[in-house]
């Protein structure tokens, strides 16, 4: 198993970026490391791998055993814009049991904006501790993964077709968008199904709830 920072000349010193790499005996205090998606299930328990994901530097890899996400959405909220340094977020929703990190929690960094903490507290943002690629937003039962990390094979056309599986069903928080997206998908001013419906230009649709 590749360990983050193992080539550091001063590896006896604590390194803030790899504080999640803890001795085995502390697992007792951190039961979440025994649960999906961090529990490093053997392939026999996990089932056939449908997709593999990888961060920019390659230290963090994961597998998914479900072909199609439960849902996928674009989110234009300010939090997503800042966290991704992007005009909006593209997230695909999977159950935690659909996912398995190759090296468990090793090499991952956490940030809970609710608790303003880098400790593991749900809900949390999960990123690579080395290259800081956002990996997922983790809730109590679900993981919102970012499909850009999924490794797609084949020609450009084949990759485009595979990407369709992760195609979003709607836009959330379209009111705070950076750009108009005239793709005809349903758009919500805030959370989907519990805010106002907007058109592609952001105008409220009468009676559109
Ligand atoms: Zn990385
Ligand atoms: Zn958001």
Features:
single chain, 209 residues, mainly beta, Metal Binding Protein, Guanine Nucleotide Exchange Factor, Chain A, seven-stranded mixed beta sheet, three-stranded antiparallel beta sheet, 23% strand, disordered N terminus
User: How helix-rich are the residues, as a percent range?
Assistant: under 10%
Ions and ligands: zinc ion
Per CATH, the architecture of the domain at 24-168 is Beta Complex
Task: Please count the beta strands (DSSP E, at least 2 residues each).
Answer: 12
Query: Strand order of the main beta sheet, please?
Result: 6-7-8-9-4-3-10
H/E topology pattern = HEEEHEEEEEEHEEE
Task: Kindly report the average pLDDT value.
Answer: 90
Name the CATH class of the domain at 24-168: Mainly Beta
CATH topology-level fold name of the domain at 24-168: Metal Binding Protein, Guanine Nucleotide Exchange Factor, Chain A
- How would you characterize the largest beta sheet? 7 strands, mixed
The number of helical runs is: 3
The dominant shape is globular
Backbone CA Rg: 19 Å
Class inferred from helices and paired strands: mainly beta
N/C terminus separation: 50 Å
Strand percentage: 15-25%
Which regions contain 5 or more consecutive residues with pLDDT less than 50? 1-11
